[in-house]
Amino acid sequence: MFSPDRRSRRSTALGWLVRLPLTLATACGLAWAGTVPVAGFPIPVPAAAVPTAAPLGPHAVGVHVQTFTYQDRPMRITTWYPATATARDPYVTPTGITGAAIEDAPADRSGGPYPLIVFSPGLGTPGDGYYFFTQNLASEGYVVIGIDHWDAAATTPGWSLADIPTLLSGIPTRNMSDSVFSAFSDWFRRTDFGLTYRAQETAFALDAALARNSDPASPLAELIDPDRIGMSGHSLGATYSLFTGGMSIRCEATDTAQRADANSGAMARIDPCTLPSVRALTDPAAMRDPRIKAILAMAPPTFIGQSNIARSAADLRIPVMFINGDDPYMETPRDPQWAIYSAAAGPKYFVEIKNTDHAVACDTVSLNPLLRSLLPSRNHQPAEFAAKADAYMRYSAAFFNSYLKAGGMADTVLTGPPSDQVVAVERTFSS
Predict the structure, then answer these.
(1) Of residues 245 and 36, which shows the higher confidence score?
(2) Gap between the Cα atoms of 123 and 79, Å rounded
(3) Residues 6 or more apart whose Cβ sits within 8 Å of residue 326
(4) Which of 290, 301, 289 lies closest to 238 in space, CA to CA?
């Protein structure tokens, strides 16, 4: 496996430890703020829109932004779709990223109906915060809905004294997930690691997409094939993609490393089986949505105890792909993801991208020149980003093409040698 030399790893760890508070407040966890201060840190919007990586597929791309009401709060949903070419300026996100998508361009119905991809962003990040990724899937012949979850507008860092040791030790011990769980422990305690709203919002967004699909008055009518639906997500959104795909929360085993209940101890050490939302589940796999036929999870953290990961992941029976960066400090730890991959029962893939940290997948942060000083410099220069984005785009499209396109489409990207930007691709085609 690729890794930087020892001196580089040491300097990276020390540098990130110094910048940890700022980084946690901006790196695709609290990117949705424009020039409004969030948790005391203003998130600046570039003076000129920054172009993201160009899509690879044959379709022009349209984008439609609509706000719904869910449980008395607004939920913004961004829909990306195959469109007819339109000579207008491309869509610019509120955070200053632009690409090839044209807002409300006429839909291209010639190849429809298209498979649907539900996209769940990371904590605090909007549904259009991964512009290159979502527009690329649309260019490849998918309708994609990006969800602004409740935390996109409501979450801020906050922790208790018990969380501070884990917060500070996460980077040098190569466990960024524990640092994030600790930095936002007030939010995670309040929402049981997001169990009180994330899966519910995903189901609402999917229902809304299918309702628009069947509404003759909707500009998106009849674009979606309701029998071909996949899901993808990044970070916390990837975790809930796995749950929506069938991964359960099993509580048969006792994890001695996670003994605290929800009212005491560090958040990263809480046994999730003590949480009210877990106790209320009617079934360990109650979050599973049978409409979802394939899952692509980018850098998912896990709060399931180590002793229960294999049992929980064994309930994941549909095709799944993991895409993760190989940065040893600023990416979701590999080992828990590998444990889920190893135990998953369906066709599965594990892709590692070289010199890539957690923020690369999120162009809202990765391409913002005003935030670049907070990020590993080698990963976020425009040329470096474009090369890494190419790998994300090619592997994600190949995966969904294989399992959601009519009749399946074998793709040499999945079966051939790794691309130049990829460390390795592990694959198991059947359990």
Answers:
(1) 245
(2) 19
(3) 1, 2, 3, 334, 352, 353, 354, 355, 356, 423
(4) 301
Q: Select from 279, 102, 282, 276 the least CA-distant residue to 191.
A: 276
In 3D space, the residue among 100, 115, 109 whose CA is nearest the CA of residue 82 turns out to be: 109
Residue pLDDT, tens place only, 411-421: 788 888 888 88
E strands within 260-408?
A: 292-298, 320-325, 348-353
Q: Which DSSP string do the residues of 22-42 spell out, in sequence order?
A: HHHHHSSSS-TTTTSEETTEE
DSSP letter assigned to residue 247: -
Widest CA span in the chain: 61
Q: CA angle, corner 144, sides to 141 and 149, nearest 5?
A: 170
By three-state DSSP, how is residue 133 classified?
helix
**The two structure tokens encoding residue 185:** 């422990």
Per DSSP (E only), the strands in 235-309 are 292-298
What pLDDT, on a 0 to 100 scale, did the predictor assign at position 7?
34
The label of the residue with tokens 């180590």 reads 306
Alpha carbons 311 and 247: distance in angstroms, whole number: 9
d(CA 177, CA 322): 16
Residue in this structure with the two tokens 């917060």, named with its chain if needed: 167
180-194 pLDDT, tens digit each: 766 777 888 889 989
The strand pair at 292-298 and 224-234 is best described as parallel
- Report DSSP letters for 295-312, one per residue: EEEES----S-HHHHHHH
Please report, for residues 34, 265, 273, 369, the alpha-carbon distance to residue 43 in angstroms, rounded to integers and kept in the order given: 6, 31, 36, 12
- CA torsion sign, 326 to 330 to 331 to 336? positive
The pTM is what? 0.89
